[in-house]
Amino acid sequence: MDQVSESVANLVEQFTKLPGIGKKSAERLAYHVLRVSEVEAKALAEAICSVKANVRYCKTCFNLTEAEQCGICRDSKRDRTRILVVEQPRDLLALEAAGSYRGLYHVLLGRIAPLEGVGPEQLTIENLCERIKEGTIEEVIMGTNPTLEGDGTALYLSNVLGDLNIRVTRLARGITSGSVLEHANREMLSDAIAGRQPF
């Protein structure tokens, strides 16, 4: 990149660090930033800084929030006897968009992946167990992604929760094995929630 200024080269390099962004996409994004007005470029930079400064994990379920608790945990109209366990906040958003689940959630912030060095202790499993021990939860629904790691995580969790005297179910397999929740459409997610089965 000798023909490109150092600032542009640095911006391209930063964009390539984003998931799913290759060199060509990074270059397109960098040149887009150069083309937009200074006001738009600063608005993008401020939005990134604001997210880093203000967004944190909910102290209860580990969803993203700007308060101590997320809006779902604060909503008194939600069914407080059920917790749907998901891997990431984006999975929660996909399920919420389907509109057919009105219980609570718990975000693991990942899945057990030994080859990547991620074990159960790096997830929020202990926090989930503490929530269940409070005594109001009757059912835990496994909403991990239908992948090898997601299924392994669900199996591990069901074993951990086996002694806590609660019903453990999983989402129905209307979701294709090997897919990711965030890419499923509303109908598939609604069917998966409605057709959940014992784990």
Q: How would the blueprint of this fold be written?
A:
Layout: H1 6-16, H2 23-35, H3 38-54, E1 56-57, E2 64-65, H4 71-74, E3 79-86, H5 89-98, E4 103-107, H6 125-133, E5 139-142, H7 148-161, E6 167-170, H8 186-194, E7 197-198
Helix pairs in contact: 1-2, 5-8
At a glance:
This protein has 8 helices and 7 strands; from the N terminus they run H-H-H-E-E-H-E-H-E-H-E-H-E-H-E.
How does this structure look, described?
The chain has 199 residues and is of the alpha/beta class. It folds into 2 domains: 49 residues, Helicase, Ruva Protein, domain 3; 129 residues, Dna Topoisomerase Vi A Subunit, Chain: A, domain 2. The protein has 8 helices and 7 strands; from the N terminus they run H-H-H-E-E-H-E-H-E-H-E-H-E-H-E. The protein has a 5-stranded mixed β-sheet with strand order 4-3-5-6-7. Strands 1-2 form a two-stranded antiparallel ribbon. Helix 1 packs across helix 2 and helix 5 packs across helix 8. The model has no long low-confidence stretch (mean pLDDT 91).
